[in-house]
Hints:
Elements: H1 2-23, H2 55-68, H3 70-73, H4 92-105, E1 107-109, E2 112-115, H5 124-136
Helix pairs in contact: 2-5
Keywords: Electron transport, Heme, Iron, Metal-binding, Signal, Transport
Domain Cytochrome c: 56-138
Signal peptide: 1-24
Amino acid sequence: MSRRLAFAGSVLAALVVSSGAVFGHGDVQPQPVNTDGLPGLGDTWRDENPYRGNEHAVKIGASAYNQNCARCHGLEVISGGLAPDLRYLEKGKEGDEWFKERVTHGAIVDGMTKMPVFAGVISQEGLWAIRSYIEAQHVDN
């Protein structure tokens, strides 16, 4: 009986460990973003990044990205294959549109959350600061 119990415990432990791999993407616990020094944006979402080229926003965005996005999109915006490599996200309005869509609506593929909704959890100011950092890391294809 103890061998069966030990085996069952091993199987259960393996399932718990492997479930983290299955459900790990999209379960990021958002971290607060201190946006002191950035102009407030209000409640209405902007269509374009109001902080483009703002070095203070890039600095805030770097910290916020590393705390909230790097787990899936990779350190320094270099993906390890789990999520899109954001270095190649278009600069300017087209990239802003994609970014806004993802952070405000998330992404669900085949019923699985691939990216959680961050709008309302992280402020618009914090999210546009993250976009500023991502755009500062851009490389051309």
